[in-house]
Structures are given as C-alpha cells and as structure tokens.
Design goal:
Layout: H1 9-18, H2 33-42, H3 47-55, H4 57-65, H5 72-81, E1 93-101, E2 114-121, E3 127-131, E4 137-138, E5 143-144, H6 148-154, H7 161-164, H8 167-179, E6 185-190, H9 193-200, E7 204-208, E8 212-218, E9 237-242, E10 245-249, H10 251-259, H11 270-288, H12 291-294, H13 297-310, E11 311-313, H14 317-330, E12 334-338, E13 344-345, E14 360-361, H15 369-379
Length: 381
C-alpha cells in the first residue's frame, strides 16, 4: 500500500470537504458552505450527461475533422465500413472508461467526480454503462478512485508521470482492478463543455413537467464571498425558478435546470434531478438529429472546437470512426447500471481512510473478487 507524503494533504482536505456526507440521499436544509459551494459546482453531472458527450460530441468532431487532418479519411471510411477487427477489444466488446472533471483553476480541477465504464458490443448493437462511484477507496494509491487521473497526470513520490503512463492510462489501470475487466480506451471530458454544446446548437426545447424554485443555487465566483459578515452567506446563492411548460433553454439555463439540488418537494430529490437530466439529453438528441443542424457547417465547426478544447482521449482518429458507428448503432439499446449497494460498504471515517467518506468492498478493503464477479455477470468474461 502506498503512503503519499504530506505534500498531498491539501488535495485530500479538499476532497474531504467535498465528499457527500450521506450516500444516495439528498442533503437537506441550507448546507454548510464548505460542502455546497464547491460540491455543487463539481457534481450535478451524471451518467446521462456523460452519454451526451461520449456519442454526440465526437460525432461532430470526426465529421468536421475530415477538413482538417490526414487521418480523417480513414476515420470516415471506418465509420462507413465499421471494420471492428481494427479496434482494441476483448470477448466481443470494447470497454471505454469515460470520466468527467470540473476543470478550472482550483485544487480539485483534475478529480474525476463522474466515472463510467462504457461497454460497446461489437456485434449485438448494444451498450452497457456502469457508473463507478467516485468515493471507492483504492489501497494501492491510498486515495479514492476519482483521484487516479490526477495522480497519473502529476505523478506521486513513488511513481513519476512517465511510470504511470499519464492520467488516462493510470485511471484505466486502477479502474481495471475494481471492475476485473480490461479497459481498452479512455476519455476525459471537462464539464465546462455542457453550456457550449447547447449554445452551439442554438438552444434546445425542453418540456418542464413540474415547475420548481430553488433558493439555494450557488452563484459562480462567489464561493468565498464574506457577504459583509452575514453568517448565512445569503449573497453566495440565488433563487432560480422554472415554470411548467415547453420552453427554449440556452446553455446557462439548461445547466441550472440539471444541477439544481435544493428545490422544495419532490423536485429536490436526486431522482427528480436525474429525470431532468434525461430530459436535457433527449432534447439535445432531438435537436442534433435534425438535418438543418446535422448538416450545418457552422454547427459542425463549433462542435469540433468544443472537442479540441474540452475532450482528452487515447482513442486515435481511425478507431474513433469505428467506435462512433458502433455507439450510434447501439444508442437505442443502452442499459445503465449501478454497482449493487450490497457489494460496497461505508467503513467508519478514520485514519485508515485518511478521515474521508469512502466505499470499500463488502468483502474487505481491496478485496475486489465479488465486485469483479458482478461485472463479469453483466459484461461477460
């Protein structure tokens, strides 16, 4: 088990402040600022948002890349012919670790608070997506799995970045231990792209079924505002309201719609928030498949620039053509799964886990056998 030096304490303290106090539940009342201001800024991005960036943004990126890169012709050919023997795979499937980070200039910018194993079948036109809880404790790095990309990118006192292979490579290696499956590719997306994607599409139409008001939506840039001594820190929050009915949303409005966590009533639950995110993804899919949008050079160019700015991956351009075709073909047969809660437990917060809120296997710290078996039952050997 690795023992990182005290030079890493700042990152751990930040991670501890941002960890959810109760798993799978809603934080009630006016939360402490140390939890809310950064916690909401980095979270509120779930599986469905990752699906969006995974199979919609690269589609535009490759389409426009035909005008920019010599290998694009090969990618376009691969998209049409789909020669699956030319991409890395195992047991008739290709596994991709998709990660989302908040980005920006703060200590946790490279923590991947959303991690999903996307398994694409090569012959059955189906996709399985399994969320990897960010709070899973990994004894090999003495840290949570959501920090693997960070350590791989920056290096540790025990491994240089050259030895880890870089952020994506190290994150894949660490996650492979948890899932017991080879991971062929990885991609990391900066969630700052969310607003840009929707704005590039000219906005989206969303049917708001249940109106709500959230009086505790954090205002970006005011996380450390002293509010002139106001101990409730009211100046750090704004009230947002969504009325029922069909409405056009730009990127900023859609972001607030999916990230709101503190509305009164049922719209303040995680279930309601995930339902809102589903609506946004469906609205984007509907907009993006319209011929006037799909074949619009300005939209394609904007999407390509978003990919360049916000997406990092080890998928080369020719392979991306095949994967995009497989993902598009399987996009109507997506199964979304969570690791069963009875396979993971929350140990007491203490020195063993650096006083952090973590998940460990029910079988014991670092004993992934039962978790591996579950992944095999879902994905095959």
């Amino acid at each position: 088990m690795l023992d990182h030096s005290t030079t890493h304490s700042r990152l751990r303290e930040r991670d501890a402040r941002n960890s959810e106090r109760i798993s799978f539940t809603q934080i009630e009342g006016r939360p402490e600022e140390s939890v809310v201001s950064r916690h909401q800024k980095r979270r509120g991005k779930t599986i469905l948002l990752m699906v969006l960036v995974l199979f919609l943004v690269p589609f535009f990126g490759v389409g426009f890349a035909a005008y920019k890169f010599p290998l694009a012709a090969k990618a376009v050919y691969n998209f049409i012919a789909s020669p699956v023997n030319q991409i890395a795979s195992n047991g008739g499937k290709t596994n991709i670790l998709v990660m989302g980070k908040s980005g920006g200039d703060h200590d946790g910018a490279d923590l991947t608070d959303t991690m999903i194993l996307v398994s694409v079948s090569l012959d059955r036109t189906e996709i399985k997506m399994i969320s990897i809880p960010r709070d899973i404790w990994v004894p090999e790095i003495r840290a949570k799995v959501n920090s693997a990309y960070y350590w791989g990118k920056k290096g540790t006192p025990y491994f240089t970045s050259q030895e880890t292979g870089g952020g994506i490579a190290f994150a894949k290696k660490i996650t492979e231990e948890i899932v017991g499956q080879p991971i062929q590719y990885g991609a990391i997306i900066d969630f700052s792209s969310f607003k840009d994607i929707i704005d590039a599409l000219g906005g989206i139409e969303v049917n708001v079924e249940n109106g709500f008001t959230d009086e505790l939506y954090p205002i970006e840039g005011r996380e450390n505002d002293t509010c002139e001594g106001d101990t409730t820190f009211t100046c750090r929050y704004e009230a947002i309201t969504f009325n029922p009915g069909v409405q056009t949303m730009n990127g900023e409005t859609a972001l607030k719609f999916v990230r709101s966590r503190h509305a009164e009533g049922t719209e303040g639950t995680d279930i309601a928030r995930e339902a809102r995110q589903q609506k946004i993804v469906e609205a984007i899919k509907e907009k993006i498949t319209q011929p006037k949008v799909l074949l619009n050079p300005k939209v394609d160019a904007a999407m390509f620039n978003i990919v360049k700015k916000y997406v990092e991956t080890d998928i080369d351009l020719p392979a991306s053509g095949i994967l995009i075709r497989l993902i598009l073909d399987g996009s109507k047969n997506i199964t979304q799964l969570l690791i069963p809660k009875d396979l993971l437990v929350n140990p007491p917060i203490g020195k063993t886990y650096d006083s952090l809120y973590v998940f460990i296997p029910k079988a014991g710290n670092g004993k992934w056998g039962e978790v591996n078996e579950w992944f095999t039952s879902i994905l095959g050997s």
